[in-house]
Amino acid sequence: MVTQVEAAGATCATGGQRITQGLDTNRNGVLDAAEITSTSYVCNGLQGSVGPQGPMGPTGMGGVTGLAEVRHGCVAPDPGDATKAVIRSGEGYAAARNGASGPFTIAFNPAVAPGSYTLLLDSRTNKGRAVAIAATGDPFAGIVLTPGWVDPEQETLDRICFMLAR
């Protein structure tokens, strides 16, 4: 038995379901046209009349009206000197690195405005594996991003991407 949506038309004025029955004699998992022994339809009823307007619901809570500021970018180890950082994307920030396996420091220029920020992070190895990132500091003085463990014999840190939003 196979059911399919039946579009509105001559068989079902408002659409419905077509039900075909038969035996899948060639066992291909499909009910081929030659295997169909009966077809029936279950049609949708006519659209009912519009009901009365319901009562007004309670006023909802206030929410975020929009982003006030967003900074984003991706940093990576410098291919020529893994103790340094390079900016792969984004603008309005500087990046530095403290050693080949050390943290990256992100400093924003121009400085970010006062407020409460959310920081989203994504870090990957050259093989696409996600890497845990510890973030310390603050958007005003600088954010320090410390990558988690990367097996130096199997993979390298490819990038750390961030989005800072207020």
Describe the structure.
- The protein has strands at 2-6, 16-22, 36-43, 70-78, 81-90, 93-97, 104-108, 118-125, 133-138, 142-147, 157-165.
- It has 166 residues and is mostly beta strands.
- The chain has two domains: 2-43, no CATH class; 70-165.
- The strands form three sheets. It has a four-stranded antiparallel sheet, with no helix packed on it. Strands 6-7-10-9 form a four-stranded antiparallel sheet, with no helix packed on it.
- Strand 9 (133-138) and strand 10 (142-147) form a beta hairpin.
- The two termini are 55 Å apart.
- 13% of the residues are buried.
Keywords for this structure?
4-stranded antiparallel β-sheet; 166 residues; mainly beta; 11 strands; 2 domains
Give a short summary of the structure.
The protein is mainly β and 166 residues long. It is built from no helices and eleven strands. The chain folds into two domains: 2-43, no CATH class; 70-165.
How many helical stretches? 0
Q: Cα distance, first to last residue?
A: 55 Å
The number of E-state strands comes to 11
- What percentage of the residues does DSSP assign to strands (E)? over 45%
Approximate shape: elongated
* Broad structural category: mainly beta
N to C succession of SSEs? EEEEEEEEEEE
Mean residue pLDDT: 91
Q: How is the main sheet built?
A: 4 strands, antiparallel
Q: Which residues sit in consecutive blocks of at least 5 with pLDDT less than 50?
A: none
Strands in their spatial order, largest beta sheet:
5-4-11-8
Tell me the number of structural domains. 2
Name the helicity range.
under 10%
